[in-house]
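SUBJECT: A protein chain and its fold
Encoding: whole-number codes for local backbone shapes
RECORD BEGINS BELOW THIS LINE
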Amino acid sequence: MDDTNERIATAPLPTPGELRRRRNPFIQFFRFMRINWTMWRLARKHY
């Protein structure tokens, strides 16, 4: 049985604060830089 629509309907919605953080370009830039820094460190460690 496919209960995908039910699961989507009962999924939690993001809060207004979460939506604001997702749309903020400054926060997105710092998150982008953080994940790049993490990947760079892992690459250097295992090289």
In short: The CA atoms of residues 30 and 36 lie 10 Å apart. The chain has a mean pLDDT of 93.
